[in-house]
Amino acid sequence: MSDPGNYAGSTDRSLGQLFASATAEMSALVHDEIALAKAEVRQDVKRGVIGSLAFIVTGVLILFAIPVLSFAAAYGIHNLGLGLAWSFLIVGGAFILLGLLLALFGLAKFKKVKPPEKSIASAKQTAAVLQGVKPHPRPVVGARAIEQAQGSTLADEAIESRPVQDKALPVTRSST
Question: If you average pLDDT over residues 40-49, what whole number do you get?
Answer without folding.
Answer: 86
